[in-house]
Write a structure and sequence with these properties.
- The complex is a heterodimer.
- In chain A, 10% of the residues lie in helices and 42% in strands.
- Chain A is mainly beta.
- In chain A, strands 1, 2, 3, 4, 5, 6, 7, 15, 16, 17, 21, 22, 23 and 24 form a 14-stranded mixed sheet that branches.
- In chain A, β3 and β4 form a beta hairpin.
- The radius of gyration of chain A is 25 Å and the shape is globular.
- Chain B is mostly beta strands.
- Chain B has 1 helix and 9 strands, in the order βββββαββββ.
- Chain B is elongated, with a radius of gyration of 19 Å.
- Chain B starts with 5 loop residues before the first strand and ends in a 12-residue tail after the last strand.
- Classes of the chains: A mainly beta, B mainly beta.
- At the A-B interface, β1 of A face β3 and β4 of B.
- β1 of chain A pairs parallel with β4 of chain B, so a sheet runs across the interface.
Chain lengths: 532, 153
Amino acid sequence: MRKRTQVVLIDGVEVSASDIRTDHDVDQGVATGAVTVRARRPSQVEPGAPVDIYAGYDGATWPIFSGRIAEYQPGFSRSGAETRVELEGWGHRLYFRALEDRGFNGPIQLDTWWRSLCYIQGVKRWRSDTPYDDAGAIISLGDNADYNNGWVPIDPDNPGRQIDRVVRHFGYRSFETPLGQRLQRVSGLPADSATGLLTYEQGVNVLSVEHPVTLAGMVNAVDVRGAEYQAPDTSEVAIRSFTGTYTPDTDLYGATGLDTLKVGPDAMLGSTTLADAARRAYEIDRGGEQIRYRWTVPGDPERIPGEKVAITSAIVNGSTDTSTVGVLIAELPRPVWLMKVSHILPARSGWITTLEGWAGTGSALPAGDDTTEIAILGSAGVHLGNEYLSHYRNPSPNGNISTTEDHIAFPVPDTYTTLTIRGWHHGSNSFVRNQGSTASRFEIYQFGTRVASGEMPRSDENLEQRLDYDLDSTWDALVVPLTGSLDPDPTGANTYLSILSGEDRDVGDYDDFEVRNLVLYAGGVGAPEPLG
Amino acid sequence: MSTRRNWFGTTDTGQVFFNILVDSRDGGQVPDWTLRIVYEDHVYPYADPPRSDPEYITSEPSTVTWRVWLASREDYAALRAKLGQTDTLYVLHNLQSQGDTVQVIDTLYEALAGTTLLALDRPAFAVDEDNGCEVDVTFRRHIDPATGEAVVS
């Protein structure tokens, strides 16, 4: 029987919390969540306080939320006194007002524009893909020098809403995951087949499935209107892209046989190239029946929105057609984008994860993932802390700076703004985090300055069991998103990862843990663009 | 009835002494603490063969109910005043399964720290000069089943 592990840190202090809910949605730029703590509330529960939630099973945890307290509401009734704490993810910073009259000189790649806005607005962590249109060309804003000299302004009232609107034109979404803000294509088919995708299957790993099939949102023509301006030769130009040919369908759309999706006018679509790219993306996603699924599974902390998965269920996909073709259709796994990941961890019942999937039409388009893997630490691993533990792979703590700190140099081929360390660990942060304690963590230094950092999730010590950590199977998987960025350092002479043991100052002890097979996943190539 | 008695409370918080009554219809046995976990069976519909994935959520607090004899109405009032209070319960050795064994003078007891007096039911008072009282007392205690140690709330 698996045992749930959940850790809620508010302002770095572990808080006893129950009834946890988190929601990450591709169609929402900001994650939301809620936890219940006692009334009277712990003193660190204040609006704006940072909140990190980790959850998993049998002592191993995974980040499922990172953000801040939006509001809290203490109350009591006959059944007790409690404080409901509402949370919002760090993506909320994109929706803050920005300074007036700011912008960028075009042409600027869509992902560079997005990353620059994340940086300017103070978003903590982000990751973007290289944005391609359906023809394989990189999408750049401000690509028409005749319009405003290619100037790409920031909407000072709400940069977040501007981002949501603009990236959707091209089949992209700006959304939040527990590992940070994400810009990713969520358009068309995620994959041409389910091969290699995590597959959810009736009777195997799903608790319930719903499959709404609807004509809502389906159109057979798209009319995109972009900027209107006076060209240097004084002619009036109105950017517009309209579906060239369409198939009339009087059954679906009435007497005209036509239903048109009207987009814009949007001054951010400053060229015919951009308007055409937008029209084609809308045609891909709105030209056919919408494929949607909603299903539940036992708590799964590793799922993040934007992932490609597949789902198969003969009951919801099939009909009474029992011919060979009918059976094939019923049992065919459908690749979908994970659109929404919601966790509910009630105090007295099971942890349920609700997943929602969607797919458009056409063929799968290139992903544009620019992530590079940089190996940092091998299978020998390192033990940090202050105790000799004979069942560890390295019984003595053996950091090369002290027993509680280890430095590992590594090369950096390019500029990266998205950093995640993956690997394996055990025993990390296996003490109750209190007011004065520090967490075991990773920090990256370049040229003597700390440029990135991230705290490790919890992995139980299991000291009584004295598990044999020579065996790989006794270790827990580790993922640590880092806040910060890296500059190029091809030789690695000036870059190192610092692995630090946390200190429990209540008892004057250090956290003993081991890590191994650490790999830095670096992406978001290129520095944020300076403001024009 | 044994003259050796059990008690709830310490010298600092005030002790209330009592005897646990054993009904011969129970074969001379004393009820012990309940131990129950909270779990959820995630059952996969349409699985053939059937599949489920049980999730352990937590262990419930334990309770025990004993019919006890209090020597006086004053003792009953003192016990009543402790309703809802958490204190240490001392029970004669080997009468139940929990607690740390301690010796008081020449007698062994189990000391059960973190025990809450939850309910007093069916009180019945003697009408003779004995002036005693019988009552069902229910105690609550939350232990970690793996270690037997009381859970600190």
